[in-house]
Fold:
Amino acid sequence: MSRAHIERGLDSLAQAAVAAKSLSSQVAGVASRFAEVLRGGGTLYFCGNGGSAADAQHLAAEYVVRYVEGRRALAAVALSTDTSILTAAGNDLGFDQVFARQVEAFCEPRDLLVFHSTSGRSPNLLVAAQAARRAGVPTVAFLGKGGGALAGLVDQSIVVASDQTSVVQLIHLALEHLIVEAVERELLGS
Structure:
Protein backbone atom coordinates (compact mmCIF):
# COMPACT_ATOMS: atom_id res chain seq x y z
CA MET A 1 0.00 0.00 0.00
CA SER A 2 1.43 3.34 -0.99
CA ARG A 3 1.77 6.39 1.18
CA ALA A 4 -0.46 8.29 -1.29
CA HIS A 5 -3.22 5.70 -0.82
CA ILE A 6 -3.02 6.07 2.96
CA GLU A 7 -3.11 9.85 2.70
CA ARG A 8 -6.21 9.68 0.46
CA GLY A 9 -7.88 7.43 3.02
CA LEU A 10 -7.07 9.81 5.84
CA ASP A 11 -8.30 12.76 3.76
CA SER A 12 -11.60 10.92 3.19
CA LEU A 13 -11.95 10.27 6.92
CA ALA A 14 -11.09 13.89 7.76
CA GLN A 15 -13.73 15.14 5.31
CA ALA A 16 -16.33 12.86 6.89
CA ALA A 17 -15.38 14.08 10.37
CA VAL A 18 -15.75 17.71 9.29
CA ALA A 19 -19.12 16.92 7.69
CA ALA A 20 -20.20 15.17 10.92
CA LYS A 21 -19.99 18.51 12.75
CA SER A 22 -23.37 19.27 11.16
CA LEU A 23 -24.77 16.42 13.28
CA SER A 24 -23.67 17.95 16.60
CA SER A 25 -27.17 19.09 17.58
CA GLN A 26 -28.62 15.64 16.84
CA VAL A 27 -25.77 13.92 18.70
CA ALA A 28 -26.33 16.14 21.74
CA GLY A 29 -30.02 15.22 21.66
CA VAL A 30 -29.20 11.52 21.54
CA ALA A 31 -26.74 11.94 24.43
CA SER A 32 -29.51 13.53 26.49
CA ARG A 33 -31.82 10.68 25.57
CA PHE A 34 -29.24 8.08 26.65
CA ALA A 35 -28.77 9.89 29.97
CA GLU A 36 -32.54 10.14 30.48
CA VAL A 37 -32.98 6.39 29.94
CA LEU A 38 -30.15 5.52 32.33
CA ARG A 39 -31.34 8.06 34.93
CA GLY A 40 -34.80 6.46 34.79
CA GLY A 41 -33.47 2.96 35.48
CA GLY A 42 -33.64 1.79 31.87
CA THR A 43 -31.12 -0.14 29.86
CA LEU A 44 -29.38 0.73 26.60
CA TYR A 45 -29.61 -2.21 24.19
CA PHE A 46 -27.23 -2.15 21.21
CA CYS A 47 -27.41 -4.24 18.04
CA GLY A 48 -25.77 -4.50 14.63
CA ASN A 49 -24.24 -6.98 12.21
CA GLY A 50 -20.58 -7.71 11.43
CA GLY A 51 -18.37 -4.73 12.23
CA SER A 52 -21.43 -2.91 13.54
CA ALA A 53 -22.02 -5.81 15.96
CA ALA A 54 -18.47 -5.28 17.21
CA ASP A 55 -19.25 -1.57 17.63
CA ALA A 56 -22.41 -2.47 19.57
CA GLN A 57 -20.35 -4.65 21.93
CA HIS A 58 -17.70 -1.95 22.26
CA LEU A 59 -20.25 0.67 23.24
CA ALA A 60 -22.05 -1.57 25.72
CA ALA A 61 -18.70 -2.20 27.40
CA GLU A 62 -18.01 1.55 27.65
CA TYR A 63 -21.21 2.00 29.68
CA VAL A 64 -20.92 -1.11 31.86
CA VAL A 65 -17.22 -0.88 32.66
CA ARG A 66 -16.13 2.75 32.18
CA TYR A 67 -15.10 5.18 29.51
CA VAL A 68 -12.40 7.41 30.98
CA GLU A 69 -12.85 7.65 34.74
CA GLY A 70 -13.80 5.00 37.24
CA ARG A 71 -17.51 5.21 38.07
CA ARG A 72 -20.53 3.05 38.81
CA ALA A 73 -21.71 0.67 36.09
CA LEU A 74 -24.41 1.86 33.71
CA ALA A 75 -26.92 -0.61 32.26
CA ALA A 76 -26.08 -1.57 28.68
CA VAL A 77 -26.28 -4.82 26.71
CA ALA A 78 -25.16 -5.82 23.21
CA LEU A 79 -27.76 -8.13 21.66
CA SER A 80 -25.10 -9.68 19.42
CA THR A 81 -23.19 -11.44 22.19
CA ASP A 82 -25.25 -14.47 23.25
CA THR A 83 -24.34 -17.15 20.73
CA SER A 84 -26.93 -19.61 22.07
CA ILE A 85 -29.78 -17.14 21.57
CA LEU A 86 -28.45 -15.99 18.19
CA THR A 87 -27.97 -19.49 16.82
CA ALA A 88 -31.22 -20.88 18.23
CA ALA A 89 -33.24 -17.95 16.88
CA GLY A 90 -31.41 -18.12 13.54
CA ASN A 91 -31.94 -21.87 13.26
CA ASP A 92 -35.48 -22.12 14.59
CA LEU A 93 -37.02 -18.81 13.51
CA GLY A 94 -34.74 -17.46 10.78
CA PHE A 95 -31.89 -14.96 10.93
CA ASP A 96 -34.31 -12.07 10.48
CA GLN A 97 -35.55 -12.78 14.03
CA VAL A 98 -32.25 -12.87 15.96
CA PHE A 99 -32.66 -9.35 17.39
CA ALA A 100 -36.46 -9.06 17.33
CA ARG A 101 -36.80 -12.09 19.58
CA GLN A 102 -34.48 -10.47 22.14
CA VAL A 103 -36.37 -7.18 21.89
CA GLU A 104 -39.55 -9.09 22.74
CA ALA A 105 -37.87 -10.83 25.67
CA PHE A 106 -35.85 -8.02 27.23
CA CYS A 107 -36.75 -4.51 26.09
CA GLU A 108 -39.30 -2.33 27.86
CA PRO A 109 -40.62 1.17 27.14
CA ARG A 110 -38.19 2.67 29.69
CA ASP A 111 -35.23 1.24 27.72
CA LEU A 112 -33.62 2.37 24.47
CA LEU A 113 -32.75 0.16 21.50
CA VAL A 114 -29.71 1.48 19.61
CA PHE A 115 -29.03 0.26 16.08
CA HIS A 116 -25.66 0.32 14.30
CA SER A 117 -25.83 -0.09 10.53
CA THR A 118 -23.80 1.29 7.69
CA SER A 119 -26.63 0.75 5.19
CA GLY A 120 -29.88 0.72 7.18
CA ARG A 121 -31.06 -2.22 5.07
CA SER A 122 -30.34 -5.34 7.15
CA PRO A 123 -33.55 -7.38 7.42
CA ASN A 124 -32.88 -8.45 11.02
CA LEU A 125 -32.52 -4.80 12.08
CA LEU A 126 -35.70 -3.79 10.24
CA VAL A 127 -37.64 -6.59 11.93
CA ALA A 128 -36.16 -5.62 15.33
CA ALA A 129 -37.21 -1.99 14.79
CA GLN A 130 -40.75 -3.15 14.05
CA ALA A 131 -40.74 -5.33 17.19
CA ALA A 132 -39.55 -2.35 19.24
CA ARG A 133 -42.32 -0.17 17.82
CA ARG A 134 -44.95 -2.79 18.73
CA ALA A 135 -43.54 -3.00 22.27
CA GLY A 136 -43.36 0.79 22.70
CA VAL A 137 -39.55 0.69 23.03
CA PRO A 138 -37.84 3.92 21.91
CA THR A 139 -35.19 3.59 19.20
CA VAL A 140 -32.12 5.39 17.89
CA ALA A 141 -30.03 4.42 14.87
CA PHE A 142 -26.50 5.27 13.78
CA LEU A 143 -26.55 4.92 10.01
CA GLY A 144 -24.69 5.67 6.81
CA LYS A 145 -25.31 5.49 3.06
CA GLY A 146 -28.42 7.67 3.27
CA GLY A 147 -29.97 5.77 6.18
CA GLY A 148 -31.86 3.11 4.25
CA ALA A 149 -35.26 1.83 5.34
CA LEU A 150 -34.18 1.73 8.99
CA ALA A 151 -34.12 5.54 9.16
CA GLY A 152 -37.89 5.55 8.69
CA LEU A 153 -38.51 2.95 11.39
CA VAL A 154 -36.69 4.58 14.32
CA ASP A 155 -37.46 7.55 16.53
CA GLN A 156 -34.12 9.26 15.93
CA SER A 157 -31.36 8.61 13.44
CA ILE A 158 -27.88 9.96 12.97
CA VAL A 159 -26.86 9.44 9.36
CA VAL A 160 -23.19 9.82 8.48
CA ALA A 161 -22.84 11.32 5.01
CA SER A 162 -20.63 8.64 3.47
CA ASP A 163 -21.09 5.56 1.32
CA GLN A 164 -17.82 4.04 2.53
CA THR A 165 -18.49 1.41 5.21
CA SER A 166 -15.21 1.89 7.08
CA VAL A 167 -15.64 5.67 7.23
CA VAL A 168 -19.22 5.34 8.48
CA GLN A 169 -18.14 2.94 11.23
CA LEU A 170 -15.25 5.13 12.33
CA ILE A 171 -17.46 8.23 12.53
CA HIS A 172 -20.16 6.26 14.39
CA LEU A 173 -17.59 5.19 16.96
CA ALA A 174 -16.23 8.72 17.35
CA LEU A 175 -19.73 10.16 17.81
CA GLU A 176 -20.71 7.47 20.28
CA HIS A 177 -17.57 8.02 22.33
CA LEU A 178 -18.57 11.68 22.56
CA ILE A 179 -22.01 10.55 23.71
CA VAL A 180 -20.54 8.30 26.42
CA GLU A 181 -18.46 11.23 27.63
CA ALA A 182 -21.51 13.51 27.68
CA VAL A 183 -23.59 10.90 29.51
CA GLU A 184 -20.89 10.43 32.15
CA ARG A 185 -20.70 14.18 32.67
CA GLU A 186 -24.46 14.59 32.87
CA LEU A 187 -25.17 11.65 35.14
CA LEU A 188 -22.07 11.43 37.24
CA GLY A 189 -20.42 14.82 37.10
CA SER A 190 -17.18 13.30 35.80
About this structure: The radius of gyration is 16 Å.
